[in-house]
C-alpha cells in the first residue's frame, strides 16, 4: 500500500502548545477550507501523557525491514478512545537494538502521528521500545523477530500484462516465509478513454484507482503464490465511470499494477501498558507491471 507526503511537522518530545496548532487550523479553515491541513486538525485530538498512567496508554509499534535498515514507528493513544497521546513533561520513548539506544522523534503529517527511529538491519538483534516516565518508571516492549527475507518471482518488474489474455495474474514468491500473517496488497491505477470527456478533466484520459488487500490463506502460503483478478478491479472502475457519465463511451487505455506481499509477526507490549497495545515486525516486497487491454 505510495503517496507523497506533505512536509512533516517534527517536534521534540518535550511537547508543544497544541492550542496554537488548533487555532492555526481554525484560521486556515476560515480563510480557505479547501486548503485545510488534516494533520493540524489531528493535533486538536491530542492529550498530554502527563494526564495518564502507563496502564491507560495504548502503544502500537511497527518495525519494518527495508534494504539495509529497519525503521521503528510507535503510535500512542488513550485507552478506550481515539485520542492521540503526546509525550510531555519529561516522558520519553526510547528505541533500542541491543547495542545502542536512541530517542524517538515525534512526527505528524496528513497520515497521522507517530514516534520514529531507524537502525542498521541486523537479523540477530533484539529491537525494543521503552516508555520512560518522568517519575523514573519505565515500560520496555520487545518487537517480535523479523520475518525472513524473501523475493517476488512473478510477475517480473516491468512485465506487460494483457487483461484480455490474462485476467488473473499470479503473484509468486521464493520462500515459505513462516510468518504469523501474510497478506497481498494490489493497487490498479488505470487511464480510461471517456467520450465525451467529463467537464473539468485536464488530461486526455480519466484516471481511476482501485485496490484489493487480503490476508493470504494457508493454501496460498503453502503454494507460495496467490492469484489477483485484475480484470475484476478494472471492471469496477469501468462501472463507476459509466455511472458517473451516463451515455458516454468508456474504453480502457492502460493501467499500472502494483503488488505488495507483506509478512508480519506479532507480540504483546509491556504488561505495564494498556492491554490493547501490540507490536508487529514486518517485511514487504513490491513488484509493478504495465497493464494493457
Give a verbal description of the structure.
The protein is built from four helices and 19 strands. Mean pLDDT is 88; it is low at 1-12 and 23-41. A hairpin with a 2-residue loop joins strand 8 (105-109) and strand 9 (112-120). Helix content is 14%, strand content 47%. It has helices at residues 18-31, 38-42, 218-223, 230-244; strands at residues 9-11, 46-48, 57-66, 69-78, 84-86, 92-96, 101-103, 105-109, 112-120, 128-132, 138-142, 152-154, 160-162, 168-173, 181-195, 206-215, 225-229, 249-268, 278-292. The protein has 293 residues and is mainly beta. It has two domains: 9-142, Sandwich (Immunoglobulin-like); 152-265 and 283-292. The two termini are 24 Å apart.
Task: Encode the helix/strand succession as letters.
Answer: EHHEEEEEEEEEEEEEEEHEHEE
SS element count, helices: 4
Strand proportion: over 45%
Helix proportion of residues, in percent? 10-25%
* Rg (C-alpha, Å): 23 Å
First CA to last CA: what distance? Answer: 24 Å
Number of strands: 19
Instruction: Give the low-pLDDT segments.
Output: 1-12, 23-41
> Biggest sheet, open or closed, and with what strands and sense?
10 strands, mixed
Under CATH, the topology of the largest domain can be stated as: Immunoglobulin-like
> How many separate structural domains?
2
Arithmetic mean of pLDDT: 88
Which word captures the global form? globular
Structural class of the helices, strands and pairings?
mainly beta
CATH architecture of the largest domain: Sandwich
Please identify the top-level CATH class of the largest domain: Mainly Beta
Amino acid at each position: 500500500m505510495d503517496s507523497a507526503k506533505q512536509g512533516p511537522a517534527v517536534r521534540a518530545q518535550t511537547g508543544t502548545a497544541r492550542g496554537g496548532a488548533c487555532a492555526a487550523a481554525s484560521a486556515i479553515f476560515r480563510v480557505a477550507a479547501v486548503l485545510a491541513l488534516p494533520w493540524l486538525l489531528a493535533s486538536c485530538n491530542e492529550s498530554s501523557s502527563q494526564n495518564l498512567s502507563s496502564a491507560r496508554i495504548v502503544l502500537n509499534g511497527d518495525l519494518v525491514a527495508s534494504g539495509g535498515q529497519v525503521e521503528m514507528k510507535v503510535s500512542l493513544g488513550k485507552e478506550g478512545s481515539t485520542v492521540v497521546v503526546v509525550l510531555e513533561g519529561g516522558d520519553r520513548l526510547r528505541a533500542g537494538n541491543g547495542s545502542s539506544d536512541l530517542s524517538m522523534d515525534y512526527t505528524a503529517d496528513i497520515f497521522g502521528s507517530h514516534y520514529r527511529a531507524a537502525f542498521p538491519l541486523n537479523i540477530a538483534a533484539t529491537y525494543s521500545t521503552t516508555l520512560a516516565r518522568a517519575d523514573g518508571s519505565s515500560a520496555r516492549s520487545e518487537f517480535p523477530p523479523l520475518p525472513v527475507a524473501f523475493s517476488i518471482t512473478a510477475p517480473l518488474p516491468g512485465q506487460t500484462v494483457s487483461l484480455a489474455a490474462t485476467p488473473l495474474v499470479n503473484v509468486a514468491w521464493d520462500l515459505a516465509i513462516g510468518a504469523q500473517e501474510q497478506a497481498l496488497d494490489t493497487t490498479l491505477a488505470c487511464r480510461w478513454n471517456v467520450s465525451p470527456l467529463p467537464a473539468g478533466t485536464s488530461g486526455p484520459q480519466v484516471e481511476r484507482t482501485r485496490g484489493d488487500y487480503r490476508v493470504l490463506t494457508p493454501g496460498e502460503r503453502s503454494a507460495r503464490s496467490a492469484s489477483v483478478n485484475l480484470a475484476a478491479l478494472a471492471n469496477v472502475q469501468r462501472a463507476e465511470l459509466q455511472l458517473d457519465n451516463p451515455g458516454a463511451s468508456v474504453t480502457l487505455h492502460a493501467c499500472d499494477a502494483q503488488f505488495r506481499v507483506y509478512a508480519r509477526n506479532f507480540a504483546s507490549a509491556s504488561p505495564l501498558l494498556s492491554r490493547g497495545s501490540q507490536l508487529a515486525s514486518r517485511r514487504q516486497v513490491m513488484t509493478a507491471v504495465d497493464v494493457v487491454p
